[in-house]
Inverse folding.
């Protein structure tokens, strides 16, 4: 078989070249179709995602529309309930205030009488009116540990806080803007603070000498009135606290408000139940109907895309099967005889050109000529001349490059010179 092959002529090499070209074309087609298949898969995936996004967005929007409608009703109902509750609380507060006033009427009257008696006592003994205040008794006649602590804090604020604050204001507003030295400013600040402390101490001393000592007995008598007032204030606070904590609303006549609140609460519960049922129906039925409507509208396009994709996949499968068959034929019938290295389009073209130029008559001879390192390469012009009959007028042809050096001139030549029928083998 090998010997017969080597004795073949140019027709055999043309068949080999056609088979190699067919294989290359199939590989190119398969590559292009695989690229198109990837683009189709991407388009199908994108279309699927768009459909699911539209379904999700539409369902969410319509569900929110249902929910918003019920939320609007609930908001109005809750606002109405809060208004009634506010009216109820207002009436209860008014009733409690009236109750506190009634239950503390006697205590308030006793405190007012005690204040009058204290005022009368001080007026008769010519004691200054400010001595009736709680502040005076705490600062000059404290009673018990609590008032003693209050007195200490009061004197600390009086002799430290007040002079310090006044001195700081004077320092920032007047002294710091003067042209005096820093030492002078500090000295002046200390002097001002000392003067303020002395003035306050003097005032306290005068009150002690001129008021407390001369009227000590009257001030002691006035303390019992102060105690009575304080005790009455404590009783008033306890009564007020007890009434405010009383949760029994039956005495305040708010049954009408309670009835209205119950009716509004029942209405709210009914709306919430309707909302729950409506959303459940939407999730169970409406959402599925929306899904089907969108899929029915958009699936035809998606199915067409899938059909085109499957059709292309079948074409690829057929082309790959054909490529496999062609590759098997080339490997079995050609590569094993003339060698894998000769199964290149440029080399097959050169072998065909060698035979057609008359340098060889068989495959074996053409391969020998091809492998001769001293041979002159056959040009494409010679090959074209052997394949093309003599024309009436010789057309101008471009310069033909070496067949082993591919370039743009080859493509241009193939465009300018149309292919001719293969001449008969000599």
């Amino acid at each position: 078989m090998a010997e017969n092959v080597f004795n073949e002529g140019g027709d055999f090499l043309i068949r080999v070249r056609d088979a190699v070209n067919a294989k290359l074309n199939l590989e190119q087609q398969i590559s292009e179709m695989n690229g198109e298949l990837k683009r189709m898969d991407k388009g199908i995936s994108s279309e699927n995602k768009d459909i699911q996004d539209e379904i999700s967005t539409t369902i969410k929007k319509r569900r929110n529309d249902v929910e918003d409608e019920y939320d609007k009703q609930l908001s109005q109902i809750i606002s109405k309930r809060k208004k009634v509750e506010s009216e109820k609380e207002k009436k209860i507060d008014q009733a409690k205030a009236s109750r506190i006033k009634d239950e503390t009427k006697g205590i308030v009257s006793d405190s007012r009488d005690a204040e009058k008696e204290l005022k009368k006592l001080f007026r008769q003994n010519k004691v200054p009116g400010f001595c009736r205040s709680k502040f005076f008794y705490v600062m000059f006649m404290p009673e018990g540990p609590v008032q003693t602590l209050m007195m200490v804090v009061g004197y600390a604020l009086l002799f430290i806080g007040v002079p310090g604050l006044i001195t700081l204001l004077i320092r920032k507003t007047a002294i710091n803007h003067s042209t005096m030295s820093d030492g002078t400013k500090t000295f002046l600040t200390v002097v001002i603070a000392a003067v303020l402390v002395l003035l306050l101490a003097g005032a306290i001393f005068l009150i002690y000498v001129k008021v407390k000592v001369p009227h000590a007995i009257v001030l002691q008598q006035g303390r019992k009135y102060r105690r009575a007032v304080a005790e009455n204030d404590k009783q008033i606070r306890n009564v007020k606290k007890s009434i405010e904590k009383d949760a029994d609303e039956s005495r305040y006549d708010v049954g009408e408000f309670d009835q209205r609140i119950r009716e509004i609460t029942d209405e709210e519960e009914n709306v919430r139940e309707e909302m729950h049922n409506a959303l459940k129906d939407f999730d169970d039925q409406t959402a599925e109907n929306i899904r089907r409507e969108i899929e029915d509208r958009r699936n035809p396009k998606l199915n067409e895309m899938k059909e085109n994709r499957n059709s292309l996949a079948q074409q690829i499968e057929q082309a790959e099967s054909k490529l496999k068959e062609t590759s098997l034929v080339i490997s079995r019938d050609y590569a094993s005889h003339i060698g894998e290295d000769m199964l290149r389009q440029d080399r097959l073209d050169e072998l065909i050109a060698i035979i057609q130029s008359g340098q060889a008559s068989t495959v074996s001879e053409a391969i020998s000529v091809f492998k001769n390192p001293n041979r002159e390469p056959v040009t494409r012009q010679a090959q074209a001349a052997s394949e093309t009959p003599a024309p009436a007028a010789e057309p101008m042809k471009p310069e033909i490059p070496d067949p082993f050096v591919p370039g743009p001139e080859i493509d241009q030549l193939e465009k300018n010179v149309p292919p001719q029928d293969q001449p008969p083998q000599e």
Observations:
- Residues 379-426 have pLDDT under 50 and may be disordered.
- The radius of gyration is 58 Å.
- The chain is about 80% helix and 0% strand.
